[in-house]
């Protein structure tokens, strides 16, 4: 059972969380934990609010960046957790950028790095396939129409008006 969360600004801890981080982002997890505990909130409360498993929030507080989502999803999770705790999420993401920037590229870059063609290349290949299929169908219709005698005899011979 989760209780309603009353957010009171805990200025010293919020300020520590947003501005007191070192250049590599170390200490963010401890500051998150201290702010959450100062408000009397549990990991389960945070989990219910954020719709993330307790293990993921625990990983955030333990600064285990390698087990957390990468890129935009991680930045959104940090903003959401900061909002839940009453801190400035954007300032936190900027302060943690050196630490979370090491986690790798977002989905689009990681997919392209694996050699999968991007959508424009697939679209160009797809266009040629459709064009070839259309020409093949047209040729089949002409052959069938000729075979059935639906086309005039002089149409094939080139004789005309």
Automatic annotation (TrEMBL):
Keywords: Membrane, Transmembrane, Transmembrane helix. The chain crosses the membrane at residues 128-147. The keyword Transmembrane applies. The keyword Membrane applies. GO terms for molecular function: DNA binding. This is Transcriptional regulator. It comes from Corticimicrobacter populi.
């Amino acid at each position: 059972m989760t209780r309603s969360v009353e957010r009171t600004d805990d200025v010293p801890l919020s300020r520590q969380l947003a501005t007191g981080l070192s250049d590599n982002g170390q200490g963010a997890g401890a500051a998150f934990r201290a702010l959450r505990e100062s408000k009397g909130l549990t990991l389960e409360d945070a989990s219910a609010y954020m719709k993330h498993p307790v293990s993921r929030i625990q990983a955030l507080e333990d600064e285990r960046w390698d087990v957390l989502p990468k890129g935009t999803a991680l930045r959104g999770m940090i903003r959401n957790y900061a909002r839940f705790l009453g801190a400035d999420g954007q300032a936190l993401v900027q302060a943690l950028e050196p630490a979370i920037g090491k986690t790798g590229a977002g989905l689009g870059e990681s997919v392209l790095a694996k050699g999968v063609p991007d959508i424009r290349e697939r679209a160009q290949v797809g266009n040629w396939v459709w064009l070839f299929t259309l020409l093949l169908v047209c040729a089949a219709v002409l052959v069938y129409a000729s075979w059935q005698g639906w086309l005039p005899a002089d149409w094939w011979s080139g004789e005309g008006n």
